[in-house]
Design goal:
By secondary structure, the protein is α/β, with parallel strands linked by helices. The protein has two domains: 143 residues, Aspartate Aminotransferase, domain 1 (Alpha-Beta Complex); 231 residues, Type I PLP-dependent aspartate aminotransferase-like (Major domain) (Aspartate Aminotransferase, domain 2, 3-Layer(aba) Sandwich). The protein is 39% helix and 13% strand. The mean pLDDT is 97. The structure holds pyridoxal-5'-phosphate. Pyridoxal-5'-phosphate binds next to helix 3 and helix 4. The site of pyridoxal-5'-phosphate (PLP) has 14 residues, from helix 3 and helix 4. InterPro entries: DegT/StrS_aminotransferase, PyrdxlP-dep_Trfase, PyrdxlP-dep_Trfase_major, PyrdxlP-dep_Trfase_small.
Length: 396
């Protein structure tokens, strides 16, 4: 049998994968323009409106509001949509902490709807089963860059009079049935934190097609001002959550490369899907045919049940890392996060812990990630990944 790298054998791969972030003279030029203009932020906006326009167009949205990050983008979008303390918001458990923390930051209660086995995206049947008179909104998360089933979720939201806020932090550029994510629901939120596919160091955006909701969000982000009001006219209680012109400069630069990078990620993901068909014991996540553009912030694959029962997921990660493949274990299911459960208990007086067996099993035993930059490599890189996975799987 071939000796694994973790046991002192030769690793499948010694070369690094493409580094992230990627930038060139365009970002240099745009950043220097901001520097020399003296307009770095505050009331003067020059690059910000352009970044907002480009990003809204990319997602077929009419209105965009830039904010400091993707976490507050969710909290502000929920509040703009009318969600208040004590209201329930249905979220998936297989996502980053912020999806459930954002409602709790202003006293709204996340309720966890389990994900679909095949996609790890929020399961519309589970959502519908959890609706109560207190439910105000659904927050589907387009995890890894794959849109959740927006057709079914919209039908459910319409039937029950609920708002949809799409957490699209990982899905810049993704499309569902030909329409950009973000404004398919009532509002959508994005993150430009440094690991995301569009990177401005930190940053976020809220998109919507609803002018009133856009104005509400804008006010909450701009110290309670109104769009055409005077500088010292404050009509509601709001934060200052504005992005700077430097971040807008980076966004414009990064957006110029998105289409080309998306095409490379999609092509490599297709190849890796094919190669993994020939590896026993693992499968990539399924993609709904209605996902017409997958943003591949993550390439997620699962260990089959028999293999996952034999092999510890952390060990598989360590073995693959030793082979030169930067696989990651990913999330802990948020319905099992103690800080979240504790806060829900404090707010509701009830020790509720939603059970989400699919997400829990994916987190504990099955789901593994490759980060987006790995998909920016070439064909040989994908062959190396498949070969390393085969080597590790065959070692058991
Ligand atoms: C990154 C991320 C966020 C939070 O964005 P920040 O800009 O880091 O605050 C929220 N939801 C998901 C799914 C994310 O991946």
């Amino acid at each position: 049998m071939v000796k694994l790298a973790i046991d002192g054998g030769s690793p499948v791969r010694k070369k690094p994968f493409p580094e992230w972030p990627i930038y060139d003279q365009l970002e240099e030029k745009l950043l220097l323009e901001v520097l020399h203009s003296g307009k770095w932020g505050g009331a003067t906006r020059s690059k910000l409106p352009e970044a907002e326009r480009l990003f809204a167009e990319l997602h077929d949205a009419k209105y965009a509001v830039t904010v400091v990050n993707g976490t507050v983008a969710i909290a502000i979008a929920l509040q703009a949509a009318g969600v208040r303390a004590g209201d329930e918001v249905i979220v998936p458990p297989y996502t980053f902490f912020a999806t459930a923390a954002a409602p709790l930051l202003f006293g709204a209660i996340p309720v966890f709807a389990d994900v679909e086995e095949q996609t790890l995206l929020i399961d519309p049947d589970q959502v519908e089963a959890l609706i109560t008179p207190r439910t105000k909104a659904i927050v589907p998360v387009h995890i890894g860059g794959a849109p959740a089933n927006m057709t079914r979720l919209k039908a459910i939201a319409e039937k029950h009079g609920l708002r949809i806020i799409e957490d699209s932090a990982q899905a810049a550029g993704a499309r569902w049935n030909g329409t950009g994510v973000g404004a398919i629901g009532d509002l959508g939120t994005f993150s430009f934190q440094s690991s995301k596919n569009i990177n401005s160091g930190e940053g976020g955006m809220i998109l919507t097609n609803n002018e009133a909701l856009a104005d509400q969000a804008w006010s909450l982000v701009n110290a309670g001002r109104i769009r055409d009001g005077a500088w010292y006219q404050h009509e509601v209680i709001g934060w200052n959550l504005r992005m700077t012109e430097f971040q807008a400069a980076l966004l414009i630069g990064q957006l110029s490369r998105l289409e080309q990078q998306m095409a490379v990620r999609e092509k490599n993901a297709r190849l890796l899907n094919e190669l993994l068909q020939d590896v026993d014991g693992v499968s990539p996540l399924a993609t709904d045919p209605q996902v017409t553009r997958h943003a591949y912030h993550l390439y997620i694959f699962k260990l089959h049940k028999d293999l996952a029962d034999k092999l510890n997921k952390s060990d598989v990660c360590r073995m693959l890392n030793a082979e030169g493949i930067p696989v990651h274990e990913g999330y802990v299911a948020l319905n099992q996060n103690r800080a979240i459960s504790e806060e829900i208990r404090k707010r509701t007086g009830q020790a509720r812990r939603d059970s989400c067996p699919v997400a829990e099993r994916a987190c504990e035993k099955e789901a593994l990630w490759l980060p987006q930059n790995v998909l920016l490599g070439d064909e040989q890189d994908m062959h190396d990944i498949a070969q390393a996975i085969r080597k590790v799987v065959q070692s058991v």
